[in-house]
Amino acid sequence: MFLTNLFSIGQQVLVLFILISIGFLCGKKGIINDNAAKKMTDIILYVVTPCVMISAFQKDFSGDALIRVLIAAAAAIVILVLSTLLVRLAVRGKDIDRKKVLRFAVIFSNCGFMSLPLQKELLGEEGWFYGSIFVAVFNVFVWTYGLFDMSGDKKQLSVKKLVFNPGIMGALVAVILFVCRIRLPEIISQPVTHLANLNTPVPMLIIGFYLSNAKLKKAFTDGGAYLAMALRLIAVPVAVTFAMAALGLDKTMIIAYVIACSAPTAATTTMFAAKFNRDVELSVSVVAASTILSIITMPLIVSLAWTVVY
């Protein structure tokens, strides 16, 4: 059972890494440059991500469906809060810049770029639905606690930044349409679906490009980086697997959330590290190294979760 799941999930992860390798080659050959990658990222953040949210929530509304949304949102909040408590105990040190980067790297996974495509392939629309709920909660958390912790400045917390974050705006629109039982007409839903489908290939190309320019030395010469990657790729998703299974939560939700939690470190780590003058080199190394290692760890962790749950 485990080996069968491992092979099946490994194939899907390998598909993503083939796309990443194409982005890597495009970066090395200059087909994608830094400016192009930034523009592609903007398209994903400001266009594709909201479409993913809206498309995932185009479901029939019912009391049971609303309860599932609330339970899924609560579960995501608990996971992120407990991850925060864990990392504050585990990651210590006198170097503030280094410590903040490593803590951020553990708490925040690449649950949008890496997880949503895998959730859809393995679990279908239902998995995509749960994955979108996790991403919505993640966006709120990263632009509140994540922003405050990395900056160390309460003034950085802004209602405007939170409300006008594209991921959060997309989630709000999606939830409003869902609760008000508004189904988009086909002339609108088809373009939304087509744009949402870009969430698999384009982010993989972007990740590949950044890997083509990454230096991995610091991640593999820093003991704290090893600890952060072990927590991010193994400890957190394994804990989530057994905790959610023990609570008897929806099986599809459990697998979707394990996928989200087993994803490598979020690229936002480097974005915030650069913005607030933290250890940028370490952040780039950890993001790149955890992405490479996840080709091994994600299939193993998700297969374990699948075996435990089913």
Number of structurally distinct domains: 1
The Cα radius of gyration reads 18 Å
Helix/strand-derived category reads: mainly alpha
Tally of helical segments: 13
Ranges with pLDDT <50 over ≥5 residues? none
Strand content: under 5%
Description:
There is one protein chain. By secondary structure, the chain is an all-alpha fold. The chain has one domain (2-309): Na+/H+ antiporter like fold (Up-down Bundle). The protein is 80% helix and 0% strand. It is globular and about 50 Å long. The protein starts with a helix and ends with a helix.
What layout of secondary structure does this protein have?
Blueprint: H1 2-28, H2 34-56, H3 63-90, H4 96-107, H5 111-151, H6 159-163, H7 166-179, H8 186-196, H9 201-212, H10 223-246, H11 251-262, H12 268-275, H13 280-309
Helix pairs in contact: 1-5, 1-9, 1-13, 2-5, 2-7, 2-8, 2-9, 3-5, 3-10, 4-10, 4-13, 5-11, 10-11, 10-13, 11-13, 12-13
Features:
single chain, 310 residues, mainly alpha, Na+/H+ antiporter like fold, 13 helices, 80% helix
Quick take:
The protein is an all-alpha fold and 310 residues long. It contains 13 helices and no strands. It has a single domain, classed as Na+/H+ antiporter like fold.
